[in-house]
């Protein structure tokens, strides 16, 4: 059995797609010949303090005896050169999406993160990305080459087809409330549609970004939609499954997605989808399964939502296409196999 160290910042139990990916890979890698040792890095990444950088250096310092080091990109892209220079041996970076493309960053911070991440990825011996879109971004903007990249898309668990609610039409959005998710824009887009009978449930953590939560509440209050919009917060898997089962329409207003795991989950349940096309979202949910709108374009999102909510034939067509596409999505076993191949020095 080969060995590998997987360094991940913060709490591995965190309810985000990136952490879910890391957990599933850790669980499944032994089946593909890799025994994983998880190292918890400070939670402050990608904005670590000097003290946290020193702690990270201690955690990753030497002694691996040739064991490959896999580092989650949330931390690795923020490693300064002084830290990178202390890491010996083979290093593999896992990039869910480039740090400089996070929504809400000041321009100077974007420039700083991009420059730093480019240096870090140049140090990596190989880079695993979670979508073809992210691979293209790293090639075009980070000067990486094709032979240094491996795409290992997130897996999707099999699921039963959703039955929906029907009246009122239930709209579901899933993911932590962050600026990048654009939930305030979703509420703005739904505000002109009060002539239709719909309800929106947003299932996602409310403790990750207080300003984004405040902006979402402000949008709901400004349009008097408290009786139409439910902020469910972080929910247990059984509750989330119930939300998917009872949904009539899935919507993603995200400004950027490295892959869009919730879109894949919606397709696995045969849900019709309206999605913003930032990042990999348009690749994950194709035009047969989803109405595509420009990220951040509230007026366009309103038009797409009205179409989906008022045209049952359209919803049924999108749902059928989503269900068919959901049957072809990668499994988590395939994801772990591709990651294991990189760790073992093979190409998937």
Describe it.
- With 348 residues, the chain is of the alpha/beta class.
- The chain folds into 2 domains: 2-155 and 330-343, Rossmann fold (3-Layer(aba) Sandwich), CATH 3.40.50; 169-326, Rossmann fold (3-Layer(aba) Sandwich), CATH 3.40.50.2000.
- 41% of the residues lie in helices and 17% in strands.
- The protein is built from 14 helices and 12 strands.
- The protein has helices at residues 17-28, 50-60, 73-76, 81-84, 107-123, 132-141, 183-190, 210-222, 237-246, 261-268, 281-284, 298-310, 312-326, 332-343, and strands spanning 2-9, 34-41, 69-72, 91-95, 126-129, 149-151, 169-174, 198-203, 229-231, 249-252, 273-276, 290-293.
- The chain has a 6-stranded parallel sheet, with helices on both faces.
- α1 crosses α14 (332-343) and α10 (261-268) packs across α13.
- It starts with a strand and ends in a 5-residue tail after the last helix.
- 47% of the residues are buried.
